[in-house]
Amino acid sequence: MPSVSSINGSLEITVILERAILAINGVTLKTRVFNQTIPGPTIRVRPGDEMKIRFQNLLVDQGSAYVHNQFSAADESNLHFHGLHVSGELPSDDSMVPVLPGEERVYMTLLPQDHMPGTHWLHPHRHGSTALQLAGGAAAALIVEDAPGTLPAQVEGAPEVILVVMQIDLETTARIASRARDSWFSSSGGRLTTLVNGEVAPTIGVRGGEWTRFRIVYAGWLAEVLNFDISGCEKALLAARMLEAKDGIYIRDFPRMLSGYAPIPVGGRADLMVRCMAPHTEYQVTWGAERIATVSTGELIPSSLDLEAWSPRYPAYLEDLQTTETSPDCSCVTELEGRTVNGHLFEEDFILHESYLGAVVERAITARSHPYHQHVYPFQLMSGFENNDRRDNDNRNNNNNIGTSAGNYDLPGDWHDTIEGQGVVRYKPAAFTGKVMLHCHRLDHEDEGMMSIELVKDSGPCVCRSPSLLPTWAIIIIVVVLLLVLGPIIILSYHRWRRLAAPVETRCFYFLRVQRHFWEQIPVIL
């Protein structure tokens, strides 16, 4: 994959979103990509760098106008720096502002000096066309590199492999394109399910017995969990596989031995140290029951040592909050249900929760089958989010015959920006005021309104807006049913009441009986 690195504290790159016709494993794909490649060029920066990305939207305007909370705006776009701890306001990572066809925007982002090194990615985030554009392959890895001498020697000297794993569903994408009035996206010649670095089941060369750092970017957009495994490269049998970092943040208890596959949520990342001992051997890289790549070992190097224990230095925005009290009124509930967040469809002027710089914020999140992603500020797991919450959310599991999930993949104290399941998290806004976008990273849901905004202010108080008793869509359905089913009863009853040749008192008594019958029917319908 092409790569661009910062020089002397500055990175400048032009990212072009444009139409492309690609031939992949016998399939002809008419799609939208970055710089004519799937994935786009890897961007490598360091903490403290100034990142200047000139984003050019060279898509052809088909007249697919934006329609709120619907698949639309097929040729409008923008960029989101998924995982970076940077401002969510222009000229930085503001995903609310579209870049129209034929226009460009220069994103200027200054990475904090204490930004944690890690694995991230970028992708379009125009509400209405996010799913369509990412589903077609518009994504790229974004690496924040470690300063020399800050990692254990075994990790710093290890060869690196980047795997951008893309979830492909041509039929679903075609349906979304049709609803967005997009006539460009199409495919012919077969089907695709997964791309790894733009290829179908590529072979990755490593040396036998050598530790290799795998940076895994799950550029997903539907509900499937990436149950990632390398068969035979486990424990001490032939090899060892160690968890190093998740969502671009190092774990505290490195090396953490994984006893099974890694259940990476949609949009998540994982850094794994992998050692496959046998020379001249092929190991299957699997997603559930599907082989998505092959690791092929070459000559055996002299036996490498087991990884030594190491704990990184954490910046202020990743302060350990497990024993810290939550700030007053800063414990809020966030529920992703249907297509809503706390019962609300996305509105640009609706603020879900409010916090302030220096507050310790807690969120009780319910996001089953809805991968929760938060911009700007990563969050620390306090409780919940058991791996089994995600196990069955994988269409490639071959009747659950996919081995065992690593029960220690998600532990209290770990940091994420993307998670699925139910549990409690905390974070501490420390640098950036303004909006913090949050949404379901099943991006067809996000395009249809499953997104909201938190607001970080200079000072308090916190404000929580609890979930509605019923989501907006449910209330609308109930009202429509009541009008259609019970409305005629009221009208007929009223006309019969007027025709009754009885005293007014009798007619009123009759009408009240009808009304009581009306209200008795409501619980039956609900």
From TrEMBL:
The chain crosses the membrane at residues 470-492. InterPro entries: Cu-oxidase-like_N, Cu-oxidase_C, Cu-oxidase_fam, Cu_oxidase_Cu_BS, Cupredoxin. Signal peptide: none annotated. PROSITE patterns: MULTICOPPER_OXIDASE2. Keywords: Membrane, Metal-binding, Oxidoreductase, Transmembrane, Transmembrane helix. Residues 387-407 are annotated as: Disordered. Residues 29-147, 363-452 form the Plastocyanin-like domain. Belongs to the multicopper oxidase family. This is Multicopper oxidase mco. It comes from Durusdinium trenchii.
